[in-house]
Amino acid sequence: MRVGLDVGGTKTEVVAIDADGVIAGRVRMATGWGPDAVTRTIVDGVRALGAEAGIDLAAVRSVGVGIPGQIEPGSARVVHAVNLGVDELDLAAAVGPQLGVPVRVENDVKAAALGAFALHGGAGTMAYLNLGTGVAAGIVAGGELWRGARGAAGEVGHISVDPNGPVCRCGQRGCIEAFAGGGVIAERWGRSGALPVRDVFDAADAGDAGAIELRRGLARGVAAAVRVLVLTVDADVVVLGGGITALGDRLLVDVVSELGASAEASAFMRSLRLEDRVELLPAGSPAAALGAALIGAAHDPEEALAHG
User: Could you state a single Gene Ontology molecular function term (predicted)?
Assistant: First the structure.
């Protein structure tokens, strides 16, 4: 058995996969705040597989963790996981002795890319575009996660697509994230609600001019990210995941429409058939936790994927 955890800002998802890569157990729990609480969440999550999912913990051979923030190359040290209250934490040192198995760590979006690739069939080149509070992507080509020279491959959220557009949190104007990031949309919407982006879509359907502008901007930002990912790595498919994709076809229809409209003036862009190369991650898919389990299965994440 191999265990993977997707440690999110509010909840943590834990899965166990068997030798064939089949999910044998799955639990969810609240995520603690701060390094000590995050450590307890991971340990408790693994143990919950035994208590709640009936997994034989003696059969667990590895643990992989997908977590927000930056992962120092070649280590299990996470830094700047601000949504978890973690400035710096060596997860292998913190949880490894308690669990008694190797612990490996990856950024949550990159872990989700590996998991989505496996769920999609594990062939070709796939880009996973995460639409949550921010916007980022993970790229898997030929079964290998592409990180780039400094681990920044896939940071498409901070590509400026409109120099006169809204100011992004990074300081630039018109970044993809400034249009499509859930956090920015919520701020610009400025109305309280449990699901601000869904509220924006509902208000747009009702004819609210401000909501219509925000909704169009979201579709424009996502479409721009899809174009970037196809034009730079020629991904066979761009899979959309993250919290915003809970909108389902309401989001996908807008994005496909924007891709089609933007290609009208270019025979080359039409030839790429971008509308046919974008999909939604199926609702409820544990992509990040699955990817983390694959990462934990071997010293090399790509080896874990190839043999998982």
Answer: kinase activity
Q: pTM here?
A: 0.92
Number of CB atoms found within 10 A of residue 58's CB: 8
pLDDT band, very low/low/confident/very high, at 78 (cuts 50, 70, 90): very high
CATH of 122-280, one of 3.40.50.300, 1.10.1780.10, 3.30.2290.10, 3.30.420.40: 3.30.420.40
b (16+ CB within 10 A) / e for 177-216: bbbbbbebbbebbeeeeeebbebbbebbeeebeebbebbe
Structure tokens of 185? 């949309």
Q: What is the largest CA-CA distance in the chain?
A: 60
Residue 130 forms beta bridges with which residues? 136, 241
| Residue 301 pLDDT class (50, 70, 90 cuts) | very low
Query: 122: which DSSP letter?
Result: S
